[in-house]
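This part of the workshop introduces the protein records we will be handling. To make this concrete, we reproduce a full record directly below:
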Amino acid sequence: MSKKQNTMIRNMNDLKKQSKEMDNMKTNKQVKQSGKKPDPIQYKNTTN
């Protein structure tokens, strides 16, 4: 049985489009400076 890989990028055109979108995204610091909240942390650091 072959293993399937799940990915959003299917070809070079998708990769180029995704790269352009990522280039235009604001950083968390920029989002905070505009008075908004960035995306929540998606994992919990268990070390104290």
